[in-house]
From TrEMBL:
Chain coiled-coil ranges: none
Gene3D superfamilies, per database record: 1.10.287.1260, 2.30.30.60, 3.30.70.100
Protein name, per record: Small-conductance mechanosensitive channel
Location of the Mechanosensitive ion channel MscS C-terminal domain: 177-259
Membrane topology according to the record: Multi-pass membrane protein
Cell membrane as UniProt keyword: yes
Functional note: Mechanosensitive channel that participates in the regulation of osmotic pressure changes within the cell, opening in response to stretch forces in the membrane lipid bilayer, without the need for other proteins. Contributes to normal resistance to hypoosmotic shock. Forms an ion channel of 1.0 nanosiemens conductance with a slight preference for anions.
Assembly with partners or alone: Homoheptamer.
Family from the record: Belongs to the MscS (TC 1.A.23) family.
Main location: membrane
Cellular compartments annotated: Cell inner membrane; Cell membrane
Domain Mechanosensitive ion channel MscS per the UniProt entry, residue ranges: 105-171
Pfam families: MS_channel_1st, MS_channel_1st_1, MS_channel_2nd, MS_channel_3rd
Length: 272
């Protein structure tokens, strides 16, 4: 015990020096984390003021946070006497090894950059990508956040999005509704066509230009099929779709026009 106390007394100045340096390094680390968060939020707010897509602002702010936080760590290590140049070299070598081990993460990062540059979608767009569909909420460094119509959150790796086809349902201002309506072979086709047109004419959300199309498309096995193709604003697609399905069924019933459905006849033979 006396030996330890003697060593502390002999090296008190050195201990005090490194103690102060360690405290300063800790303060730098804690403040640096706050500064990184502040810079990230400031970047996102700046993008919002410029009315830049929120997804882009979120992506760039994530990169800013990572850069500032890494610089903070290097400053804290330098404060306690660690040579940062050699440390950076070590980090580079370690980064190469980690990069080889985490090729998927690097692929996600590269795909995130491509999403920002190519902009196949923006925040608020309803898209189908990587086998999932939802509204784009955020584009992060490694992933993109989608929200489904039933309020589920999907975190999709960026590489999966860019490796497959992307369907953007929101990019164009208008969409076409494609319906196939079958009527019986005994139905009056002219009357059926007029009934379908009258339903479309009564739907106020259907656009006049381009005009809708109602035509016989197929003489199927058990029905004569009409294609019904009106155009609507993208935001009105699903409400109009559901309304047309209901109103067409009601109108055909009122006109005594049957819609065929699969049937099975079972014949029973009595054996003596």
């Amino acid at each position: 015990m006396d030996t330890i106390l003697n060593w502390i007394n002999e090296n008190s100045g050195l201990i005090l020096h490194y103690g102060i340096q360690a405290v300063i390094a800790l303060v730098i680390f804690l403040l640096g984390g706050r500064v990184a968060k502040f810079c990230s939020n400031l970047t996102e707010k700046a993008f919002d003021k410029k009315k830049v897509d929120k997804a882009v602002g979120s992506f760039v702010s994530s990169i800013v946070y990572a850069i500032v936080f890494m610089a903070t760590i290097l400053m804290a290590l330098s404060q306690i006497g660690i040579e940062t140049t050699s440390f950076i070299a070590i980090l580079g070598a370690a980064g190469l090894a980690v990069g080889l081990a985490l090729q998927g993460s690097l692929s996600n990062f590269a795909s995130g950059v491509l999403i920002i540059l190519l902009r196949p979608f923006k925040s608020g767009d309803y898209v189908e990508a990587g086998g999932k569909a939802g509204t784009v909420k955020k584009i992060e460094i490694f992933s993109t956040e989608l929200r489904t119509p039933d309020n589920k959150v999907i975190i999709m790796p960026n590489s999966k999005i860019m490796s497959d086809s992307i369907i953007n349902y929101s990019r164009e201002s208008t969409r076409r509704i494609d319906l196939v309506i079958g009527v019986g072979y005994d139905a009056d086709l002219r009357k059926a066509k007029e009934v379908l047109k009258s339903v479309l004419d009564q739907e106020s959300r259907i656009l006049k230009d381009p005009a809708y199309n109602v035509s016989v498309s197929e003489l199927a096995d058990s029905s004569v099929n009409f294609i019904v193709r009106p155009w609507v604003n993208s935001g009105d697609y699903w409400p109009t779709y559901w309304s047309l399905i209901e109103n067409i069924k009601i109108a055909l019933d009122d006109a005594d026009i049957t819609i065929p459905f699969p049937q099975m006849d079972v014949h029973l033979h009595k054996q003596d």
